[in-house]
Amino acid sequence: MSNELTWFFVPGSNQRNIDKVATLEADAFIFDLEDAVAISEKQNARDKVIQAIARYQQKNIFVRVNSFDSPYFLEDVRQVVVQGVDGIVLPKAETPAQLQVLDKLLLEKEQELNIPLGSIKIVALIESALGIHHAVELANFYRVTRLAFGAIDYTLDIGATLTEHGSELLFAKSQLVLASRVAKIEGPIDVVYVDIYNEEGLRKEVTFSKELGFKGKLIVHPAQLKVVNEVYTPTDSEVEQAKKIIQAAEEAEEQGKGVVSVDGKMIDLPVIKKAEGVLALYNRLSVTTVEN
Known about the structure:
Elements: E1 6-11, H1 15-20, E2 28-32, H2 42-55, E3 61-64, H3 73-80, E4 87-90, H4 96-113, E5 121-126, H5 129-133, H6 135-140, E6 144-149, H7 151-158, H8 170-183, H9 199-212, E7 217-219, H10 223-232, H11 236-254, E8 260-262, E9 265-267, H12 269-291
Parallel strand pairs: 1-2, 1-7, 2-3, 3-4, 4-5, 5-6
Antiparallel strand pairs: 8-9
Helix pairs in contact: 9-10, 11-12
């Protein structure tokens, strides 16, 4: 299961930003051919991204192509799907038919590159009412490993006002969490936080989305990496409680007991699995912190 937390956008036409990837430790990098690239720079961006993919073979590399309905989509996929790319981010994903077309193109490229068929992943970036409506179908598509959310285009589409408190996004975000769960994929990736120097605001937004069931964040600035990782890292008390739950479950199994209790509370299988997830996430993020 795809479990990346930090998804770092890199403008495909900006060589300086591409060079900075060498010093960053995000879980995934998204080289952007869409919003961050001027129309006159589309081909230049493709060329730079192809070179970057070859350069950063050891990193987890995705490319955000232009939207399905744009005149750049087909050429984006044909050119930037090269050896070393891990996946494609499809912006304004709305229907399974779009994914089917992208899948056909990817199959052709996988055959051409002699890599396993179906190995290139898709992140469906949902930014419209229609995309929310089809979220379960999109999440169930066999190449889709994650759903992501784009708030600016979504609020424009539904005629809402984008606010700091985010209540206008609650329904859509909840739908993406549910769709991901129904499809049995990792929880969705939350929107970009554009006020890049507002650490308190970012922390508040990430905390709220985490509580909703989101499992990652789109990031546009290195300073945001630390905050996102801190919010998602389990607290010491959460880790200790998880250890107690797992130990109690193991002891109960050894003793042939069917009932598990911790601190006087009955513990069932979902609670045990959640405790295992807490420890797995803590261990993974702790390793990342040590490496950094």
